[in-house]
Amino acid sequence: MNTSPPQSEAELLDRAAQITGKTLQYVANLVNMDLPVNKPVNKGLTGELLEAYLGASAGNLPEPDFQHIGVELKTIPVNHLGVPRESTYVCIVSMLPENNKCWEQSLVKRKLSRVLWLPVEADPDIPLSIRRIGNAILWSPDAEQEQILRQDWEELMDLIIMGHLEQITATYGKYLQIRPKAQDGKSLQAGIGADGGQIQTLPRGFYLRTELTGKIISQWR
DNA sequence: CTCTGATCATTT
DNA sequence: AAATGATCAGAG
Fold first, then answer.
1. Is the entire prediction scored with pTM above 0.90?
2. Does the residue A169 lie in any domain?
3. How far is it, in rounded angstroms, from Cα A171 to Cα A185?
């Protein structure tokens, strides 16, 4: 069962407020979903559950989750201190020039211009069903944050456009980094090679470092 | 412990 | 196949 898309930020925030402090099992009951028991890995399940409850509508389209109101949902796994445990995936990296002319039109900027952050307990020893949901934060980057994101994006995209994508590692970027994003090591995606011609290479994704996401969600602690 | 590089699950 | 949702596991 899926909730209908929220028609305003206020409606979205209201829905989020109703599950603050509740468990994932509580939300699963609301949307009539079954949580797996004794499954060794549950990657992505928390995000999909909360999307269903909040009424995200973008599916796997490269767009913000709440299309009507241009808001992206990010659940963020936190430890017992409320500190992020992992980096946050943003979107796939297009490694050909046409979609990467400028920051203003980039998918990274579109997705990050308005984000509902939803912290969720995620220490591995806590069973999925009793993990609790934290306080939702509706966020837009402030001027300094956006400038750093833009700088990171431009630096990384320059390397890609100039044919240096094979030299990119996750150490580039203060807030935004590029890491592999693939089904396995054999996946391929088009990019620009060192000689300027097209090559096939491992698909990459943009991720946000915890340095940024930790600052964002610490607002309420 | 933290971080990078690799991988898993699901949907369209 | 290609996006989404992410976490896993080994290196340092």
1. yes
2. yes
3. 20
Q: Using the structure, give the distance in angstroms from the CA atom of A130 to the C1' atom of B4, rounded to a whole number.
A: 30
Which residue from A134, A140, A122 is spatially nearest to A44, judged by alpha carbons? Answer: A122
**Does at least one atom of strand C sit less than 7 Å from the CB of A185?**
no
Nearest nucleotide to the CA of A120, by C1', is C6
Distances (CA, A) of A50 to A68, A130, A166, A192: 18, 14, 36, 37
At A36 the pLDDT is 83
Distance A62 CA to C9 C1' (A): 29
> How far does the CA of A107 sit from the C1' of C8, in Å?
27
pLDDT in tens, A44-88: 999 999 999 999 988 888 899 999 899 999 999 999 889 999 999
The CATH number of residue A127's host domain is: 3.40.600.10
Query: What is the domain extent for residue A146?
Result: 9-218
Residue A2: inside a domain: no
Q: Is residue A129 part of a domain?
A: yes
What is the domain count for chain A? 1
Residue A3's pLDDT is: 78
**A173 domain residue, yes or no:** yes
Does residue A73 lie within 7 Å of nucleic acid chain C, judged by its CB?
A: yes
